Amino acid sequence: MNPADSPTVSATSPEAKAPPATFGKGFVLDAWYFVALSRDVAPASLKRHELLGEPVLIGRTRAGQVYAMRDICPHRAAPLSAGRLVEKPGEGETIECCYHGWRFRPDGVCAAIPSLVEDQTYETDRIRVRSYPVRESQGMVFVWATSDPRNPSEPDHEPPVFAGVVGGEAKLVEWMDFEAHIDHAVVGLMDPAHGPYVHQQWWWRSEHSIHEKAKAFEPRELGFAMVRHAPSSNSRAYKILGGAPATEITFRLPGYRWEHIQVGEKQVLALTCLTPVSETKTRITQIFWSDHWIFGMARPFLRMGVVAFLKQDGGMVNLQNEGLRYDPALIWIDDADKQAKWYQQLKREWIKSRAEGRPFANPVTPAVLRWKS
Predict the structure, then answer these.
(1) Number of neighbours of residue 78 by Cβ within 10 angstroms
(2) Residue 300 pLDDT > 80, yes or no?
(3) Which of 48, 160, 287, 348 is in Cβ range 3.0-4.6 Å of 21 for a Cys bridge?
(4) 283, 174 in Cβ contact below 8 A?
């Protein structure tokens, strides 16, 4: 994205009063967050999610339209997701609350209040449930988190597009909720030095295989990338792909990290989506696409490996929380923690640029980072 094309807001808008970014607190707003796979949002379905501490209903009409709205009926606060999708003459498809039958269109506008009698005039369409912009892209559903819920504007950019979504539907999907703010989840995900200690498997690596590495990085749209390179020799799992794999690892705000591997003409995309459920909980969803034959043969073993990694990282998050509850100062070192520093700079710049109504200026500069792992 060129600076001139970057999203902006008015300097007089409510976002201009946004507080400075603090690590471990607050969220990146005016951004798209992953909430579900398209295949998991069935026609006529109503499913409750939580995003940034708010209950969000994700549904799909029988005609195939995906929508998102606040999962609270404004009448008596019952979850709308506990209701059902109905179709009445003159109303189209509506979400019917399970408590008193109030019906809402997918855009959040109230269509009917069944308890009203004929001579009771009430402008039902003045009642609205907050709706969220939603997009379907590459088999995923994204929800827009606005910085000003009381005066929302339309999104000024689209969800990210990931290179390497090949081979039809996702081949492997696993998720886990970590008891951590998204900031801690992000930097834990991009931390290059914990692998030999946290992820000790015979098929991956161990602390006895540690050696020095040097990787080139460059800025990318709303983030940065470890430019395409041959996988490290002590990463044994890559060897099952055969050939001479080359991988590129990219991070983008608000919380996407993906590894695109090329083996000849075949591809593997390993995408990790971080979705902030609340200030203290983050959902980690790992999604794999590939047209490589290995995914047909080795899927059960790959799933075991992904689950093992998630459990190990989740266990370390729980241990880390034992120290974080005392709110200690944290020490960040170069070069092993440089990506974590970049993330914090990106988050601060995003919040500041939106508040000041100017283009986002990526603070990351090209660099070669060196560390041992």
Answers:
(1) 16
(2) no
(3) 348
(4) no
Q: What whole-number distance in Å separates Cα of residue 313 and Cα of residue 305?
A: 12
For the segment 226-255, what is each residue's pLDDT rounded down to a tens digit? 998 776 554 555 555 555 578 999 999 999
- Structure tokens that stand for 127 in this block: 């009642």
- Residues in the chain, overall count: 373
Region 31-46 average pLDDT: 97
Burial of 250-278, coded b for 16+ CB within 10 Å and e otherwise, reads: bbbbbbbbbbbbbbeebbbbbbbbbbbbe
Cβ-based neighbours of 355, under 8 Å, separated by 6 or more: 11, 15, 16, 17, 18
Exposed / middle / buried, residue 120 (Cβ in 10 Å: 0-12, 13-18, 19+): exposed
Q: Are 276 and 158 in contact (CB under 8 A)?
A: no
Question: pLDDT digits over 173-205, tens only?
Answer: 999 999 999 999 999 988 988 888 888 765 555
Instruction: Give the DSSP letter of residue 40.
Output: G
CB 83 within 8 A of CB 46: yes
Model confidence, pTM: 0.89
pLDDT, averaged across the chain: 88
- Could you tell me which residues come within 8 angstroms of residue 139 by beta carbon, excluding any fewer than 6 positions away? 37, 38, 39, 165, 169, 170
Asked whether the beta carbons of 237 and 305 are under 8 A apart, the reply is: yes
Give the residues across from 270 on adjacent strands. Answer: 259, 288
Contact 29, 147 (CB under 8 A): yes
Tokens 């308890």 sit at which residue?
Answer: 115
Q: How many CA atoms lie within 13 A of 184 on its CB side?
A: 25
DSSP 84-119: EEEEETTTEEEEEPTTT--EE-TTSBEEE-TT--TT
